[in-house]
Amino acid sequence: MAHEAPNPNTHDDIYFVPHDSKWPLFASVALFVAMLGLASWFNDASWGMTTFFVGIAGLAVILFKWFADVVLESVSGYYNKQVDVSFRMGMVWFIFSEIMFFAAFFGALFYARTLALPWLGGEGSGLSTNEFLWGGFSAAWPSAGPGDIGGGFQTIPAWGLPLLNTLILLTSGVTLTIAHHALTAGQRTKLLWFLGLTVVLGCVFLFFQIEEYVHAYRDLNLTLGSGIYGSTFFMLTGFHGVHVALGTFMLIVIWFRCYRGHFTRENHFAFEAVAWYWHFVDVVWLGLFLFVYVV
Predict the structure, then answer these.
(1) I want to staple 73 with a disulfide (CB 3.0 to 4.6 A). Which of 45, 78, 208, 238 is the partner?
(2) Residue spans of alpha helices (H) in the chain
């Protein structure tokens, strides 16, 4: 157990190394079960869906226990400045990997819209070869691609729910920053109120995004099957929604930790890490709003 280890805070040159942990092995087993169930589900096995959700539930329990151990080590004073630097570097590289994740999807949107679509429209060929393959095809964006895959659809106006969600996320970034300043100033009540407000704003954003998806499918015929536009639209906005959901859950955990008094003015990197992640999510949404909804 972590509490049996010597406290490295008394020695800055000692790097805390936890005792052997069973959680990596258990997490690997849970992931294997989940992926086995998912593959079987896709292949119409009757037991696939149940197995997938059993694996996901097991993974959730394991991660809860694993992070509980890390929190216990933190509040017990086992982390010194060297460990703090490692955590910060780890979070920086994690966010960098997320930037590359979304960069690939934005790159797919750029390629489809700026390069592939004009080529399919015969641009630069001089022979209008598209007329022989897809007569009457227009290379205008938004497009379902040659053959009007998925049928006709309408796009979602930028100045409705997308604009409202943009304002909500930007406001949540402000409330989170106020909460951070309250933490460094030792103002616990203010910290809890503004951090809680950030959680509420994240939930409201997700609610409106679900409303937008329902409207797209039910009224606009805009679905994942709506060719290249539908694919890129739901890929970008859907993965961003997953990140907002994860960030909201992280903020809830941090709220409870603040309520329990886990953080001090000087030692609160877990709060900072979640704040970094949330601001990253805000910036990605601004890119989405501009290149998916507006332009």
Answers:
(1) 78
(2) 23-42, 48-75, 81-110, 117-120, 130-133, 161-184, 188-219, 227-259, 269-288
Domains assigned to the chain: 1-78 (1.10.287.70), 80-294 (1.20.120.80)
**pLDDT recorded at residue 1:** 37
Q: How far apart are CA 64 and CA 20, in angstroms?
A: 18
Task: Using the CB atoms, write b or e for 110-145: b if 16+ within 10 Å.
Answer: eebbeebbeebbbeeeeeeebeeebeebebeebbbb
Residues 6+ apart with CB under 8 A from 204: 168
pTM, 2 dp: 0.84
Within 13 A of 61's CA, how many CA atoms are on the CB side?
Answer: 9
Residue appearing with tokens 């630069």: 124
Q: Encoding tokens for residue 128?
A: 């209008």
Listed residue (290, 142, 284) closest to 222, CA to CA: 142
Burial of 256 (0-12, 13-18, 19+ CB in 10 A): exposed
In this prediction, residue 4 carries a pLDDT of: 44
Looking at residue 2, its pLDDT comes to: 40
Q: For the chain (length 295 residues), average pLDDT per consecutive 10?
A: 46 66 92 95 91 94 89 79 86 95 93 82 58 66 71 86 95 96 93 96 96 92 86 92 94 93 86 95 94 90
> Residues with Cβ < 8 Å from 173, sequence gap 6 or more?
278, 279, 282
